[in-house]
From TrEMBL:
Coiled coil: none annotated. Destroys radicals which are normally produced within the cells and which are toxic to biological systems. This is Superoxide dismutase. It comes from the Bacteria. Keywords: Iron, Metal-binding, Oxidoreductase. GO terms for cellular component: cytoplasm. It comes from Dyella marensis. Mn(2+) binds at H27, H74, D157, H161. Its EC number is 1.15.1.1. It is an enzyme of class 1 (oxidoreductase). Residues 89-189 form the Manganese/iron superoxide dismutase C-terminal domain. Residues 4-82 form the Manganese/iron superoxide dismutase N-terminal domain.
Amino acid sequence: MAIELLPLPYDLNGLAPHISAETLEYHYGKHHRTYVTNLNTLIAGSEFEHLELEDIVRRSTGAIFNNAAQAWNHSFYWNSMSPRGGGAPQGLLADLIVRDFGSLDAFKEAFAASGTKQFGSGWTWLVQQPDGKLAIVNTANADTPLTGADRPLLVADVWEHAYYIDYRNARPAYLQAFWQLVHWEFAADNLA
């Protein structure tokens, strides 16, 4: 069973002006596609060949893990944004953010600060821990909460290719623009 490059949940220009079609052409069309292509080459004839992507991420190491986790992380990232995103979360997610961060503004500030401080390449996640509390975690390179006990709710990609075309090296500006796109309903659907 080949792993497929999942279609974007919106058109290439769907996130403009915050993330351009040109960025998505490179980030999704080249970077993400390359991870999927490489993964299919690596798993051909292996014990991973017939597994679902999440199972490959959880069971693999080395190059297979790197490509599988990057494919999964990117799909999760695309769904963490929406052309109709932004605003504020509702319901339980909103209540948990206030409980665990004090306010939505305090959460946004902490999330952006965490993403800005991530050294090198990686990801900034909103996760739900096994005890039900929400937390912000950074992972480096291809690492993902999928391999641990935390449940991923939302992610911002802080690799330079996620923002360099539109924001050059201004990661903080990109993370501020993320709030105009954040797909709160997707995050709420991921709650345990």
